[in-house]
């Protein structure tokens, strides 16, 4: 995203957070705003001329805002309409950046709603678990990543997998990324997990361990990582018996391999 677009998104993010806090019902407003912003981006995906018009510098901000007013009318909530009109009134480097910005705002609105419900940790965990399930099912990931299939077909497939098993916020977020993926489904879901953690100033540690960690071990690990990195860490764990013992920890691009399998591999390489 280019500099002008980043500035626009930063301004809109502050306005969104302020609006949700002052709405009197952060949960309802966040859920509605997030869902409606996702729906609007679907319109942008289908209408190339509309995407171009909404970032056209030859139109005044008022004219671009007027296009949105005409388009959505009273079909969206006031908070959504205000966000959309504010968005198109600002300067975006490309129409792609505008769409990306609206998706980012939609995700944030839904995550803020989950936070207000006290469910943000659960949403993070569900996103992590869903990513691990898909990662462990290559055929499922192949189908979810199939760009030749329609977005609706991919969403329908995922909806059948998660039906009744995750919160409404997690499902809405997951269906959005599957419908318009940026990378592999697993990578996009992990990125959402990172976005959720970032709301509380945390980084994410993804831990593969040879045996399941109990709550005390998870808390101890989180405390040690916080000391290392200097800020709070959210720990997500999965069991990988192939490690034989110990664990592999990934924080961002950094990997700490303390597994038995890793030590044996390093020993073999040193003897080769």
UniProtKB/TrEMBL annotation:
State the UniProt keywords alphabetically.
Answer: ATP synthesis, Cell membrane, CF(1), Hydrogen ion transport, Hydrolase, Ion transport, Membrane, Transport
State what protein this is by name.
ATP synthase subunit delta
* Compartment(s) where it occurs, according to its Swiss-Prot or TrEMBL record: Cell membrane; Membrane
The membrane topology term of the UniProt record is:
Peripheral membrane protein
Q: Which GO terms describe its molecular function?
A: hydrolase activity; proton-transporting ATP synthase activity, rotational mechanism
The beginning of the lineage is: Bacteria, Bacillati, Actinomycetota, Actinomycetes, Mycobacteriales
Protein family:
Belongs to the ATPase delta chain family.
Superkingdom: Bacteria
Q: What does this protein do?
A: This protein is part of the stalk that links CF(0) to CF(1). It either transmits conformational changes from CF(0) to CF(1) or is implicated in proton conduction.
UniProt xrefs under PANTHER family: ATP SYNTHASE DELTA CHAIN
The species is Corynebacterium bovis
């Amino acid at each position: 995203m280019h500099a002008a677009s980043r500035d626009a998104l930063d301004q809109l993010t502050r306005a969104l957070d302020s609006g949700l806090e002052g709405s009197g019902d952060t949960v309802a407003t966040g859920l509605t705003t997030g869902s409606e912003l996702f729906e609007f981006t679907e319109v942008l995906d289908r209408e190339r001329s509309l995407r171009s018009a909404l970032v056209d510098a030859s139109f005044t901000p008022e004219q671009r805002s007027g296009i949105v007013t005409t388009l959505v009318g009273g079909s969206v909530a006031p908070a959504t309409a205000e966000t959309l009109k504010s968005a198109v009134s600002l300067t975006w480097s490309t129409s792609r950046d505008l769409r990306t910005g609206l998706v980012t705002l939609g995700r944030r609105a839904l995550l803020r709603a989950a936070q207000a419900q006290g469910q943000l940790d659960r949403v993070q965990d569900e996103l992590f678990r869903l990513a691990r399930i898909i990662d462990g099912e290559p055929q499922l990931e192949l189908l979810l990543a199939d760009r030749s299939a329609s977005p609706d077909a991919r969403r329908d497939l995922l909806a059948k997998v998660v039906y009744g098993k995750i919160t409404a916020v997690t499902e809405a977020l997951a269906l959005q990324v599957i419908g318009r993926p940026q990378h592999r489904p697993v990578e996009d879901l992990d990125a959402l997990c990172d976005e959720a953690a970032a709301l509380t100033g945390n980084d994410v540690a993804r831990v593969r361990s040879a045996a399941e960690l109990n709550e005390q071990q998870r808390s101890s690990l989180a405390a040690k990582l916080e000391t290392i990195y200097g800020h709070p860490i959210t720990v997500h764990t999965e069991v990988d018996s192939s490690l034989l013992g110990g664990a592999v920890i990934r924080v961002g691009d950094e990997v700490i391999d303390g597994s038995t399998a890793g030590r044996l591999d390093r020993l073999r390489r040193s003897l080769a």
